[in-house]
Amino acid sequence: MSRKKCFHCQFSVPSNASVCGHCGAEFRKVADKSITARISSAIGNGFMAGLICIVVLEGILPAVAKTYFPALLKYETTDEETTLYTLFAACAGALYGLFKGEDKEITRR
User: Fold this and answer.
1) Class of residue 40 by CB neighbours under 10 A (exposed 0-12, middle 13-18, buried 19+)
2) Do the Cβ atoms of 50 and 87 come closer than 8 Å?
3) What is the pTM of this model?
4) DSSP E strands: which ranges in the chain?
């Protein structure tokens, strides 16, 4: 089991603990809505959405179509369409990350 340190007393507690067993500090996750957290989340989510789109359009979809739906092989995605879909997915992921922010753990006594 992984462990973390209490921010107040530096006692080692399990990573899924909600209260420090030594000093009684409570651990909570809250959304960090600072601009740096939002930008970081937007970059990460946009990158992942674009990457997933490329993997699906270029790798998984053709393999599934070839195996289960041979009639669909008549339609092939052009490079321009793949680029457009990937850009759209990346923008959607970035917007989601921009509004969501990042989670960070805080403690209180």
Assistant:
1) middle
2) yes
3) 0.52
4) 3-5, 12-14, 26-32, 102-108
Tally of structural domains, the chain: 1
Question: What would the pLDDT profile of 74-108 be if each residue is shown by its tens digit?
Answer: 667 677 887 888 888 888 888 887 777 776 666 65
Under a CB-based contact definition with an 8 Å cutoff, are residues 29 and 105 in contact? yes
| Those residues with Cβ within 8 angstroms of residue 32's Cβ, 6 or more apart along the chain or in another chain | 101, 102, 103, 104
DSSP state at residue 19: B
**Which residues form the domain of 13?**
3-108
* C-alpha dist (Å) from residue 52 to 3, 46, 63, 84, 88: 31, 10, 15, 14, 12
Helix (H), strand (E) at residue 62:
helix 61-68
Residue 109 has pLDDT above 60, yes or no: no
Who contacts 99 (Cβ-Cβ below 8 Å, separation ≥6)?
38
Our measurement of the distance from residue 53's CA atom to the centroid of its chain's CA atoms, rounded to an integer in Å, reads 14
